[in-house]
Specification:
With 179 residues, the chain is mostly helical. It contains 9 helices and no strands.
Length: 179
């Protein structure tokens, strides 16, 4: 329902200002777009922070990656043999070494990965498919409940998605518009 209300408000008040005004007002258009982008990112961070506080640092998923990063479990014993899961568990090990061996530290990593996914996906989609698609992507990744509730699960899926979004953004930067 929140996504529908935000979409309706966006279409009613901001769509014409961002997408259809003449070129001489492009400075004002860019400022509105930047303010709206920062507001959405700030709101996404706030929602994820509220979820982290609401769960109280409790972990709701499988604790395999937590135990891997603590050294309690080996990769072969966990049945995980891919390089990506090894790198993810080593990242968690590094974070736990810096922030302490608490679940909340790993959940903060998940939150940071999600915000990075949102930002890189927005700019990649904007470059590849245009502003309207980018804004839909931004709102969907920032506000869909499945996305922000995934903060309380520690698994490498967000890690892989973060690098996919990062590489997609880099790819869109490197491809010229002549192709």
């Amino acid at each position: 329902a929140l996504l529908c209300v935000l979409y309706h408000l966006f279409m009613k008040y901001l769509y014409d200002k961002i997408f259809t005004e003449p070129q001489e007002a492009s400075g004002e258009k860019n400022i509105i777009e930047i303010i709206l982008f920062v507001f959405v990112i700030f709101t996404a961070i706030l929602i994820r922070s509220i979820v982290l506080v609401a769960i109280g640092g409790e972990y709701t998923g499988d604790d395999t990656y937590y135990r891997l990063s603590m050294g309690v479990l080996t990769h072969s014993a966990a049945g995980l043999t891919t390089n990506g899961t090894y790198i993810y568990s080593e990242l968690l090990n590094l974070i736990f070494g810096i922030l302490g061996k608490k679940f909340m530290a790993g959940l903060i990593v998940q939150c940071i990965l999600q915000i990075g996914i949102i930002i890189f996906a927005f700019f990649g989609v904007k470059k590849a498919f245009g502003k309207f698609s980018a804004w839909i992507t931004l709102f969907a990744l920032a506000f869909m409940p499945g996305n922000f509730m995934a903060v309380n699960t520690m698994n490498p899926a967000l890690f892989f998605l973060f690098f996919f979004a990062l590489f997609f953004w880099i790819l869109t930067l490197s491809v010229s518009e002549n192709y």
